[in-house]
Please model this.
Amino acid sequence: MSTIIPLLALAAIVTALVIALRSMRRPKAWKPPYKLIKASPEEMERRAVDLRDRLSRKPFGDSRATALWRRLASVGEGEGLIVEFHRDFCGHGLVRRADRVVLCDIFDGGGYTGDPIATWGDETDFVAFFARQSDYSCSGWDEREPVFHASDSWYRNNQRLTGAAIDAYLGGARRR
Model:
């Protein structure tokens, strides 16, 4: 029995040292799960065009646009469809104000919104506008859609409204 107590004390000391040494190790730097490349501006443009060409051009339609208006009309002021929730720029969002729905840039997960890009005060105008929109037109690539069009390559297709985001919002996901 007299040798067991010193052995237990030694085991406790060794365990404490191992834990202390492991806690002092530096964590490995985070790396993305894909290979990083140094793409030229031409390569970045090629990739952007490839993504553009994959965007759906199918209009959202009357029923989806109507459901979207009614959902936005049912939420509190300052709430709405916000596609992304994180720091800094979060893309486009549809936010309910007291007497209208506003399309605006979202920042800091909805904590701040930019100036209105477009506003709608009634269901008829909103549905007429959004029924004809598509992932492509909302992305900013479509020059025929001045509300969404962007010549800035960073702003195009950057966290924009999509049919999938609208459907998720209508289904109750990403409530704000």
